[in-house]
Amino acid sequence: MSHTRRVFLRRLATGLGAGAAGWLLAACGVPRATPAPTLAPAPTRSNPPDLAVARGGDSPEQLVNHALAALGGIQRFVKPGNDVIIKPNISVGYYGYQYAVTTNPWVVGALVRLCRGAGARRVRIMDFPFGGLPEEAYTRSDIRGQAVAAGGEMEIMSSLKFVKLELPRGVDLRSCTVYGDILKADVVIDAPIAKQHSLAKLSCGMKNLMGIMIERQAMHFNIGQRTADLASGVPLKLTVVDAVRILRNNGPTGGSLNDVQKIDTVIAGADVVAADSYAATLFGMQPLDVPYIAAASAMKLGRSDLGNLRIEHIAV
User: Fold this and answer.
1) What per-residue confidence (pLDDT) applies to 130?
2) pLDDT at 2
3) Do the Cβ atoms of 154 and 147 come closer than 8 Å?
4) 266 Cβ partners below 8 Å, 6+ apart?
5) Pair 99, 247: CB distance under 8 Å
6) Distance CA 155, CA 148 (A)
7) What pLDDT is attached to residue 216?
8) Buried-most residue among 88, 111, 275, 287 (CB within 10 A)?
9) What is the CB neighbour count within 10 angstroms for residue 20?
């Protein structure tokens, strides 16, 4: 059947009831779209933890699901009809996820599936790679495959959509140019991979936000403060740190499996400073050893005092 005929039949079907529409499409050989599963309401938690840390298990999806359940469910963050953007780290187009340079694709897929199950109208996944083209980075990382299979859309950031963002709370960086849709989405989920960084010491949630901006070279001058300044203007609802495989050395681009350690961990929370602070401990660092965590803590963008936070540990 031609593409034109399929489009015509789908448009005709939209004017019919659900049952008649399905019958018409099936009878004419047009495959039906698979609806996203609907999640049952999550148990209400009147006092969810500040962070949830899931470890172990047989798959990254299990880690994500358990961590989000401990926070009160994805429904705490995503409502029916929401436009959701997930921002993973898809920094380069020449290594697979095994090298712990890009976010684990199954972590991204699990987040997409949860958001769709919560009734999100749209779930987009995007990054602005600094090594290779977006198309090859999306494919080589396998994030495209997992995200699309879960009902998400991979979006290449158009140069026409970047806008100026004022940063009134910024200390050193007072404005920058960012992808405008990040500022307009109902929900933005930060989904970084935890990895060592030669300049910033750690690449995690706040550092991952550099992938939404144009002036990345300028960020390397006073990278700690400027990363915190950028984070002050980005409306994050949730941070989910992929620490399934972490890059211990030669970050952020890696290139050797000898630098990778598989620790099967996912950290989740509404406070990106707290999530990054916990991730720092996985590398033997104190949170304030990381310049941008220290700067963000001083700006009161979030909490780095892990000893005073309520952290729920889940063995999967």
Assistant:
1) 86
2) 42
3) yes
4) 53, 54, 60, 63, 64, 67, 107, 240, 241, 242, 243, 244
5) yes
6) 11
7) 87
8) 111
9) 11
pLDDT on residue 10 = 40
**Cα–Cα distances in angstroms (integers) from residue 151 to residues 112, 115, 116, 282, 303, in the given order:** 7, 9, 7, 32, 34
Fold classification of 37-315 (topology level)? Rossmann fold (3.40.50)
**Distances 236 to 118, 128, 175, 205 between C-alpha atoms, Å:** 18, 18, 18, 10
CB 119 within 8 A of CB 38: yes
Measured CA to CA, the distance from residue 304 to residue 309 in angstroms comes to 9
How far is 161 from 180, CA to CA, in rounded Å? 6
Report the alpha-carbon distance of residue 152 to residue 135 in Å, rounded.
15
Pick the closest to residue 100 from 191, 194, 190, 203 (CA basis): 194
pLDDT of residue 58: 83
- In this predicted structure, what is the pLDDT of residue 117? 98
Beta carbons of 196 and 249 less than 8 angstroms apart: yes
Burial zone of 249 (CB within 10 Å; 0-12 exposed, 13-18 middle, 19+ buried): middle
Q: Could you please report the per-residue DSSP string of 257-283?
A: GGGEEEEEEEEEES-HHHHHHHHHHTT
Q: Where are the domains of the chain?
A: 1-33, 37-315
Question: Which residues of the chain are modeled with pLDDT < 70?
Answer: 1-45
